[in-house]
């Protein structure tokens, strides 16, 4: 029993909470930007996401910084599975980068076999990481794979429902209001799309002075 509880808490930390946050962020962006309708039921929402995926593939060459995460999500399959794959890929990339930074001799040995060999190794590593992201459920050290998938899915659904309800994080909107002007233009556009609805809603509901 204690092993199951520990596995659940580890799954919640590694997958459930991150997917809830990522799902809330992406769907808040899509709802506030008008790409998706908050009133859609589950089936209609799935169909709309599939349409967005087809659209993302057709305009993939014209992606911008503001669409980078969105396009990667669509590349991994969109929906729950794609977001879990994207998160797993990001974790693998970050882990390898940190290991590289703190690995003794990595910098001096980087080009020992030549630039071409380094680039080939890098591309093969990227391909391996993307394939691992596509089968993300095999990456995590789960005692119960079913439990981890269930926790990940519940996190995804929680973030989606929070976005549908228009729930905003007060700390993020306050930070945006205070530091918005100092951000790069592309990041300003992202935050406007994700958080602007919450800010305007609070202003509309505030009493006149």
Give a concise summary.
The protein has 209 residues and is mainly α. It has helices at residues 2-32, 42-58, 68-75, 79-101, 106-109, 115-134, 145-164, 170-179, 185-205. The protein folds into 2 domains: 2-167, no CATH class; 169-209, no CATH class.
Descriptive report:
Helix 1 packs parallel to helix 7. The protein is globular. Helices cover 74% and strands 0% of the residues. The chain contains nine helices and no strands. With 209 residues, it is mainly alpha-helical. The protein has two domains: 166 residues, no CATH class; 41 residues, no CATH class. The C terminus is likely disordered.
What percent of residues are in strands? under 5%
Number of domains: 2
Number of E strands: 0
What is the straight-line distance between the termini?
A: 57 Å
């Amino acid at each position: 029993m204690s092993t199951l509880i520990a596995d659940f808490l580890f799954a919640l930390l590694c997958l459930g909470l991150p997917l809830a946050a990522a799902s809330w962020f992406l769907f808040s962006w899509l709802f506030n930007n008008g790409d998706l309708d908050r009133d859609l039921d589950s089936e209609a929402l799935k169909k709309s996401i599939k349409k967005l995926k087809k659209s993302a593939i057709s305009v993939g060459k014209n992606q911008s910084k503001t669409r980078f995460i969105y396009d990667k999500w669509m590349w991994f399959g969109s929906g729950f599975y794609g977001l879990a794959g994207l998160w797993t890929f990001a974790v693998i990339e970050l882990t390898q980068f940190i290991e590289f930074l703190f690995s003794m001799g990595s910098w001096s040995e980087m080009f020992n076999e030549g630039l071409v060999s380094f680039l080939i190794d890098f591309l093969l590593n990227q391909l391996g990481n993307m394939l691992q992201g596509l089968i993300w459920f095999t990456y995590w050290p789960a005692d119960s794979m079913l439990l981890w998938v269930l926790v990940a899915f519940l996190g995804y659904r929680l973030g989606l429902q929070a976005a549908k309800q228009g729930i905003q994080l007060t700390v993020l909107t306050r930070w945006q209001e205070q530091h918005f002007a100092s951000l790069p233009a592309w990041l300003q556009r992202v935050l406007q799309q994700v958080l602007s609805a919450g800010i305007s809603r609070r202003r509309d509901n505030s009493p006149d002075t």
